[in-house]
Design goal:
The chain has ten helices and ten strands. Strands 4, 5, 6, 7, 8 and 10 form a six-stranded mixed sheet that branches. A four-stranded antiparallel sheet has the order 2-1-3-9.
């Protein structure tokens, strides 16, 4: 068992979902077809396609804590060729603020609450407790890595981890002046709560934000379907709050939706679900 595989097994035993990275910080394809991107993944396999070998076999969605998968035949070649270990921060409700150079690190020290830090080749990773949408280049040398992305494992770091602050969430709103605070009725609930832990709800909201922010076409339809999915999963037990709705509305406005359309889409989703 090589060093990268030992690290992966140790992390998985502590509940951290991991995957192998090949040279160039790219995820390994674990079947012949996926190595040529035949499954529909994006270039360099940074996002998963539709493969079923197992589903999916690469990118952030392949990150796992299952020792049978990590040490199994499907990943045996990948670990032999691995250049690093990666993990899915959003999978354990973490957000990594990836600071690529000294100027970005200096900005973070002036601007963001102190938290656990990990040195990188050119800068630092600042790690916060809490998941959010992942967005690259929120400012010069600063990427947000949380849901639906992977980050390199560079060690446990130093310092005490801080709860994800509003200052980091605000980084994904490129034009704050265009985002208005809008309110819409949140269901009162009263049904059976299916949320196993608070992380379950947080992950659901973060994934919904990511789905809206990543939409490249059909934004109106994406916003409505996302609102429908969130309300269907989280709207009947009373756990959904105004703050959760506001996060979804802010993500929609970043993609160009008007406050009025957000309210209409939310109301239409509630009506469709009989809420």
């Amino acid at each position: 068992m090589n060093a990268h595989l030992r690290t992966a097994v140790d992390l998985a035993a502590r509940g951290v979902p991991v995957l192998p990275l090949r040279p160039g910080k790219l995820p390994a394809g674990n079947c012949r077809a996926c190595r040529d991107n035949a499954c529909g993944g994006r270039p360099n396999m940074k996002t998963p396609g539709t493969c079923t070998c197992p589903r999916p076999c690469h990118a952030w969605a392949a990150a796992t804590t299952d020792p049978a998968v990590i040490t199994g035949a499907a990943w045996s070649t990948a670990w032999k060729q691995a250049a690093a270990v990666a993990y899915h921060p959003g999978g354990i409700a973490l957000t990594v603020v990836d600071l690529d150079h000294a100027e970005a690190v200096a900005w973070a020290r002036r601007t963001l609450p102190a938290t656990r830090t990990v040195p990188t080749t050119r800068g630092e990773h600042w790690i916060y407790q809490g998941a959010m949408v992942s967005v690259n280049a929120v400012r010069d040398g600063v990427d947000i890595k949380s849901t639906m992305v992977y980050a390199r494992w560079l060690g446990p770091g130093t310092g005490t981890m801080t709860t994800l602050p509003g200052a980091v969430r605000a980084l994904i709103v490129k034009k704050p002046s265009s985002v208005r605070s809008v309110t819409a009725p949140v269901p009162a609930g009263g049904g059976e709560c299916r949320h196993r832990t608070p992380v379950y709800l947080e992950r659901g909201i973060a994934m919904a934000e990511q789905r809206i922010t990543a939409a490249t076409s059909g934004v109106h339809a994406t916003v409505y379907r996302t609102f429908l999915a969130v309300l269907s999963a989280h709207g009947r037990c009373g756990c959904l709050t105004d703050a959760h709705a506001a996060r979804l509305f802010a993500a929609a406005q970043v993609r160009g939706e008007s406050p009025r359309h957000c309210v209409d889409a939310w109301s239409n989703a509630r009506t469709a679900l009989g809420m």
